[in-house]
Amino acid sequence: MNYFMYVLIFLSVIVSGMSVLAIHISTKNLKLILSFSGAYLFAISVLHLIPEIYLSHSQNIGIYILIGFFAQILLEFFSEGIEHGHIHIHKHEQAHSAFPFAMMIGLSIHSFLEGMPLANPNTDSHSFLLTGIVMHNIPIAIALMTMLLQSNITKTKAVMWLIIFASITPLGTFTSYAIGENIIFNFSSYFDKIMAVVVGIFLHISTTILFESSENHRFNLIKFLVIILGAGFAMFSL
């Protein structure tokens, strides 16, 4: 079991989220971070993850990609799109509730699923997947902590929820590892299918981020260069 992987995923959320307490991260800068991570997720999906799962020859693998894609659409009814940087603070929620549980549940299911294919280190794309999840966690943690601090809860509770969220992806990885150790059917087929679901999630998240990166359909050179940089990083990484 790769304990460094668990620590890296956990700290990527904690450090990114806690940075909000020390420095102000503008919406413009958050969108640039999102553009980079979205381009990286899209590029690794096209260049590495999709080719690998199709080479596995698992049956009906495309169906699992579609399941992941449409599952993410469903999850966003609860998470309100915080996975791609949307921060929603509703006044009625501030008045009647200390914490938006539906958002946290949707975001947690998303992160749990993302962590599941990491339990199989015996793939060529494992390092790309790990890097993609870490990069994806950075803007999510920033958006989550920003939203928590703007809601009607204390900083202590906001940090507590951040710690809980930071544990979700590692929990998904550990759960998948336990399943892989004990299930009686084909291990490789299981991991191929769960990877396909995550690829579908990545495709939805990344394309949504990239489509939203052009505000009012106007060309933005800085965002375009950041997107190219993110895709190039995925293309030329070893």
Give a quick rundown of the structure.
This protein is an all-alpha fold. The radius of gyration is 18 Å and the shape is globular.
Number of DSSP helical runs: 9
Distance between the termini: 22 Å
Dominant shape:
globular
Kindly provide the radius of gyration, computed on alpha-carbon positions and rounded to a whole number of angstroms: 18 Å
Q: Strand pairing plus helix content: what structural class?
A: mainly alpha
Fraction in beta strands: under 5%
- Stretches where pLDDT is under 50 for at least 5 consecutive residues are 90-98
Order of helices and strands: HHHHHHHHH
- Rounded mean pLDDT is 85
Tell me roughly what share of residues is in helical segments.
over 70%
- Sheet bearing the most strands, described? none
Number of strands: 0
Descriptive overview:
By secondary structure, this protein is mainly α. The protein has one domain. Helix content is 77%, strand content 0%. The protein has nine helices and no strands. Helix 1 runs parallel beside helix 6 and helix 3 packs across helix 8. The two termini are 22 Å apart. The relative contact order is 0.22. About 4% of the residues have low confidence.
Task: Set out the fold topology.
Elements: H1 3-22, H2 27-55, H3 61-79, H4 91-96, H5 101-115, H6 126-150, H7 155-182, H8 187-212, H9 221-236
Provide keyphrases for this structure.
238 residues, 9 helices, globular
